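On clarity, I found the account of how folds are encoded harder to follow than it need be. What matters is that the chain and its backbone geometry are given together, residue for residue. For the editor and my fellow referees, an illustration may be useful. For illustration, here is how one protein appears when written out as sequence plus structure tokens:

___
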Amino acid sequence: MICPYCNSPKNRVLRTESLMQTTRVRRCTECGRVFQTTEIVDYETRIFAKALLKEGKDGRQAAHA
């Protein structure tokens, strides 16, 4: 996963939660910022989608595909 802040491909997974989707909290090893990814599998079409949630300056999260 590429860091949405500095575009570095180097990051570490801090936490993983799995239910119907897999959510991972990651920390970039270059800039140190934390971001969240969500992985979802559509079983009908067998499409794997990964969404990136990036925390904004106001503390809210915005989705980026």
